[in-house]
Structure to design on (168 residues):
């Protein structure tokens, strides 16, 4: 896949998938109206968490398009396994970033309903990763993905990054 096609495809998928999950649905649930006021430090922490999640999400999407020459969408996967950048710390940075955006919104807006929504989204992400994504990546990348699974945690990022080869 050409780099510009990968970037365009990733941008479209970013709007469709995370845009709906972390943007449209939270807006639908809250109308962006604040609830009972949480203390200022909690709200500031929420804003920082949401912003950090958004930055991580954009970085992960860029890595897929530029390094992997593909998109996160199952219909247009990467040409090569992405194991650099955020993917050296955790195998699922996009999912964690989306959850950070939703949890950050919950704290910023003082809306616990968004924490419940984040829990439902987390369960859906975990089911998708175990039921579809990991088997598909194992079929596509074989031993390279299995080595990556052994070297890098799936859900709990570590500060020390794994040193992975980008090619088998």
């Amino acid at each position: 896949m050409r780099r510009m096609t990968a970037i365009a495809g990733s941008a479209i998928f970013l709007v469709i998938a995370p845009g709906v999950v972390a943007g449209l649905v939270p807006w639908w649930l809250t109308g962006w109206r604040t609830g009972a006021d949480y203390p200022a430090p909690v709200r500031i922490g929420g804003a920082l968490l949401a912003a950090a999640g958004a930055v991580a999400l954009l970085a992960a999407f860029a890595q897929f398009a530029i390094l992997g020459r593909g998109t996160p969408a199952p219909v247009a996967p990467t040409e090569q396994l992405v194991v650099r950048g955020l993917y050296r710390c955790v195998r699922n940075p996009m999912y964690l970033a989306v959850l950070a955006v939703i949890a950050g919104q919950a704290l910023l807006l003082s809306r616990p309903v968004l924490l419940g929504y984040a829990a439902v989204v987390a369960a859906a992400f975990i089911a998708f990763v175990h039921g579809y994504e990991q088997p598909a990546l194992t079929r596509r990348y074989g031993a390279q993905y299995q080595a990556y699974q052994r070297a890098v945690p799936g859900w709990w990022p570590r500060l020390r990054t794994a040193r992975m080869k980008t090619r088998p």
